[in-house]
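Hi R.,

Here's the input for the zinc ion complex you asked about:
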Amino acid sequence: MLDLDGSNYKAIPVMRLCMRLTDSIALVGSGDARLTDPYDCNIYAIKSQEGALLIDTGGGGDTELILENARHTFGDVVGALITHAHADHAQGGPELQDRDIPVVAPTPSVPLLTEGTETELGITAAKRDSVYPDDYEYSHYTPDQTATPGSILELGGRQFDIVQIRGHASDHVAYLTEVDGLTACFIGDAVYPDGSISLLNTPGSSLAAYRTDIENLVGRGIDALFTGHGLPRLRDGQDSIDQAADALAGMYTPPSRT
Ligand SMILES: [Zn+2]
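And here is the predicted structure with zinc ion in place:
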C-alpha cells in the first residue's frame, strides 16, 4: 500500500464503505473522502446486468476494499473502465487483472499503460512536488480491451459513448451512459462542477487540446457529472461543461483545479 507522508490515514478493515448516489451508481472508492487509500481517485460502481462495473480503478493501494464495497452494493465486479492512464486512476488495473477482472482503457492510453515513462505519466513532476514518494514505481500492464474515442462500447448490457476530452492528459476520455433516467457523464479529471478544468504542467496536458475537445461535450444534455476527485454533481452537469467551454473560448487561462 502507498503511504501518504504526513497523513493520519490508517488501513481499515473491510467495512463495506460506499456512498450510494443513485439507484444504480455508488462511490466505492475515494481518497478525497478517505473511503479508501488517499492516492485513490473517485471510483464509481455502476450496476449492470452481469454485476458491477467500475469507472476508474484507483492507485492500487486498496483494491480489495473497493471490490468489497462494489460487491456489497451491486454484486461482483465484472469489469472496469479507466478514463486515463494517470496512476491514481489506472494503477488498480493490475490488481483487478490478477483477480480475472478485465480492464478497458482508452485506445490512446495503451502506449502509456504499457511503456509510458515517468515523465510522460506525470510522475517525475509529482515526485518533484512530493505528490508521490521518491520510490514510487508505476506498474505497466496491457488492458484487456480498448475503448476508441468516438465509438460506443457495450458492457454488461450498458452502452457507453466514448468521448475524447484531452487537455488534462493526452489520452483522456469521458464515458457517457443513460442510468436511472439520467444522462451520466463520468468525466474523470477533465472538468469539475464549478466549470474549472485541470491543466497540469506535465507532458500530455494541453490548453489547446482542451479548447478543441470541450466541444465534444457541448450539447450532450448531461445531467450527472461524476468527477474523478471531489464531489460529483447529480443534476445540471451540462451547466458545468458549458461554463468550461465558455471560459475556454475567452482570452485568459480558465480556472484550473490543482
Ligand atoms: Zn489525472
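One thing worth noting: Residues 84, 86, 89, 168-169, 189 surround zinc ion (CB under 6 Å).

Cheers,
M.
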